[in-house]
Amino acid sequence: MYLDFLVKIPFVQGKITRRKKKDVVYIEYEYDRIYDPVRQYTFPKRVTIGKLSETDPELMQPNQNFLKYFPDAELPETKNRTSRSSCLRVGAYFVLRKIIEEYNLVELLGGYFEQRDLGLFLDLAVYSIIAENNAAQYYPDYTYNHPLFTNGMKQYSDSTVSDFLNSVTDDQSIGFLNSWNETRNHREKIYISYDSTNKNCQAGDIEMVEFGHPKVDVGQPVFNYAVAYDTHNQEPLFYEKYPGSLNDISQLQFMLDKAFGYGYKKIGFILDRGYFSSENIQYMDKCGYSFVIMVKGMASLVNELVLEHKGTFESKRVNNIYEYGVYGKTVKHRL
Asked: Is the pTM of this model over 0.85?
């Protein structure tokens, strides 16, 4: 995390280097050298101690490493700027605040978070949307030039953000999802688009992190998470997280039961090929759900049907689906 004041770039003969990355110039300090007798070469050990000021080439904005390696450096008694920018970026904030008001999110979340935590929770949600980032270490930079929901627009450090996220319990998450889905119109016919993905994890011993079937295999255990989305009203409904060893096919039936438990009865589902199996199709038929699902063409229950109609529609104008630039054909058949 970079400190909110400027200092002079240290003068240490042969130890200070500048490294430009994109539009930022980083100041690096060489704190050691290691000689490799095999290669007969000395490797410098460097650490970033700050980034160059945009207005003065002799000044830099320091970080914690600067305080570690230069503990006796003179620091300004008064900072050369306030903790907030004189110009706040308010456009996206106003739009998202209006959405929060329309969905009564403050009242819903207020049942599960204290006032101080509620403001920080909303700020983190808005930060992830505006900045398209969820890293806590960059949150203080966001608060510098954006309005906030916290009382007095109080700014919190990245360590406070991490502590807060670790304090959120499953009861709070589940309670909010229950309250959110209670407010939906259960009499309305909707189609739920459901999809999942997985993430590699290096965080260590976490219960739901297991070796499974990652989309990008880097040899690490993974966890899965999924989102269910109301395609008609364009609203997210609920999300799930589950162990990395479970595949999409086995997880689908749990999701169907969860949707029913939330009170949705007049529903259909839009699913990709990861959920395609005869067991899942039979289970959705048993529940009386309509569904649209991408098939696996090599699956035995549809392979013959696909081959039977191959070449009968691919170049016919009547079968052209103009909006998507493809050709298609509807076939009614009992699987």
From this structure: no
Looking up tokens 């050709």 gives 327
With tokens 């529609």, the residue in question is 313
Name which of 138, 137, 142, 106 is nearest 121 in CA terms.
Answer: 106
CA terminus-to-terminus distance, the chain: 59
One CATH from 3.40.50.1000, 3.90.350.10, 1.10.10.10, 1.20.1250.20 for 184-294: 3.90.350.10
Q: What is the pLDDT of residues 75-99, one digit of tens each?
A: 775 444 456 788 899 999 999 999 9
Give the type of residue at 291: F
Between the CA of residue 246 and those of 25, 210, 224, 242, what are the distances in Å? 45, 9, 8, 7
Q: Which of 28, 33, 34, 35 is nearest to 12 (CA)?
A: 28
Write out the residue limits of the CATH 3.90.350.10 domain(s) in the chain: 184-294
* pLDDT tens digits along 164-197: 988 999 999 999 999 999 988 888 889 999 988 8
